[in-house]
Amino acid sequence: MYLEHFQLTELPFRLSPDPAFLYLSKHHARAKAYMEATIWFTDGFVLITGEIGSGKTTLIETFLRELEKDVVVAQVAQTQVSPIEFLQAVLVQFGFSPFKMRKAELLATLNQFLVEQYSAGRKVLLIVDEAQNLSNRVLEEIRLLSGVETTKEKVLRIILAGQPELNGRLDSEELIQLVQRVRLRFHLTSLSPEDTQAYVLHRLEVAGSHGRKIFAEDTYPIIFRYTGGVPRLINTLCDTALMGAYALEHQRIGVRELKAAIEELQWVEFASRTSRGRASLAVAPAPKRVGPDEVLARIIVAHSGERVEERPLRPGRLIIGRTPENDLQIDSRFISRHHCQIITTAEGSVLEDLNSTNGVYLKSKRVRKHHLNDGDVIVLGKHEIMYLDERSARAKVQHDGDSTGDHKIIDEDEVQDEEEHEQPARSAGAD
User: Fold this and answer.
1) 86, HSE (Cβ side, Cα atoms, 13 Å)
2) What is the pLDDT of residues 80-103, one digit of tens each?
3) Are strands 45-50 and 156-162 parallel, antiparallel or unpaired?
4) Phi first, then psi: what are they for 371, rounded to 5°?
């Protein structure tokens, strides 16, 4: 790697969350202060939202590292679970083995534990990351847990962290009682141009630059222009630039080296990307109505030619990555923490690379965004994902039936009831 070339002791722009590299912008410092407030207030319930890559997880890890010993923590990142599975996950974090308990026993055990910790002078904190994936039923369980109290005060502090859509979820009428329990609410925005430069310099300093100017002054406005101040995008661009300069044996990143990295990543300016997205939304026709549980497509995951997993695609977003908080976990060192996502609507499915390290490939070509077609095979590291569009299959069946006028017999193996496709258990992934 380029460490010796640039006289660094650590990789400065790794995508994995590392509290040692946390840069506290004004917004990040405020979000951290809100987290700390959960410990100060007896009714602490805080909601933190931010875009993918804004630094939420790193902020949480830093906050946890600084907690006093009298705080007992349960941290839940697996959020696509039933209410019972959620309660079990919380109790596991507290040291219990609750898998044979019924719901009433789970609640009684948890309530008793909370009261015992309060009596012993300890504070109990529940942190739920990727909370936007929680069902309304699980969110209702969290609301009920937030109400557990002694004769004097509540005994459970809660932090919910998630992507911006969590705000929309919580503002719905169904969850109004939960929102009323939230004491502090904060949205983590991207870095400003000034903070973007300070962020890069901070990470280089932590990595051992000792004040050396590895990036030229005129590169920072360009970094901001192409990343929008999103920390994960900054890391991706700067790391790519360092790798490219190392390959050319250049000692410094100037505009030429930075633009070469941008071309390699096939990026356009951040504002252009977001404005295109808004423009397409403005002119897009109204989407077809589909039920939230309707299976529109499927993906089949394979490794070394062997089928590993099959997953139905319903309306919404499915995030693929290495760690357990993803909707689909692929535990491989070639897969980034949040590698890519598939957004499924009635019209089709779109694959987007989430600025992964090793990329997303289709027919040996790296792609950033791709409208999936039936039969597409996507390569992620050592894994292959085949996309099967059930919309096109249904259309073909309907067309064949209409053209012949006969009843068409469909093999039961080809069309299965969606209830039969349960999500397999995820293995723990390294960060």
Assistant:
1) 23
2) 889 999 999 999 999 999 999 999
3) parallel
4) -80, 115
For residue 25, the tally of other CB atoms under 10 A from its CB is: 23
In this prediction, residues 270-296 reach a mean pLDDT of: 59
pLDDT of the residue at 431: 39
In this structure, what token pair is assigned to residue 144? 């009920």
> CA-CA distance, 38 to 24, in Å (whole number)?
19
What count of other Cβ atoms lies within 10 Å of the Cβ of residue 105?
12
Nearest residue to 221 via CA among 272, 189, 255, 247: 255
219, 254 contact by CB (below 8 A):
yes
Tell whether the model's pLDDT for residue 280 goes beyond 70. no
Structural tokens at position 64: 């946890």
Strand-by-strand arrangement of the 123-128 sheet = 71-76, 123-128, 156-162, 45-50, 184-188
E strand residue ranges, 9-70: 45-50
* 164-178, 283-297, 365-379: the lowest-pLDDT one: 283-297
Task: Of 125, 126, 131, give the one whose Cα is nearest residue 80.
Answer: 131
CA atoms within 13 A on the CB side of 38: 31
How far is Cα 360 from Cα 367, in angstroms, rounded to an integer?
6
DSSP annotation of 252 reads S
If you count them, how many residues does the chain have? Answer: 431
Site of tokens 């633009």: 259
Q: For residue 380, which phi and psi values (nearest 5 degrees)?
A: -120, 105
Instruction: With residue 113 as reference, give the H or E element that holds it.
Output: helix 103-119
Q: How far apart are CA 294 and CA 281, in angstroms?
A: 23
Instruction: Please list the residues that pair with 206 across neighbouring strands.
Output: none
* Pairing label, strands 71-76, 123-128: parallel
Q: Take residue 338 and report the two structure tokens written for it.
A: 């949040």
pTM for the model stands at 0.61
Give the C-alpha separation, 250 to 14, whole Å.
Answer: 21
Contacts of 420 (CB under 8 A, 6+ apart): none
Q: What is the Cα 293 distance to its own chain's centre? A: 21
pLDDT digits (tens, 9 = 90+) for 301-339: 998 878 888 899 988 888 899 988 888 999 999 999 889
**Residues 404-428, mean pLDDT to the nearest whole number:** 36
Residues 6+ apart with CB under 8 A from 139: 169, 170, 175, 178
pLDDT tens-digit readout, 24-67: 888 898 888 888 888 877 777 899 999 888 889 889 999 999 99
Q: Report d(CA 195, CA 244) in Å as an integer.
A: 24
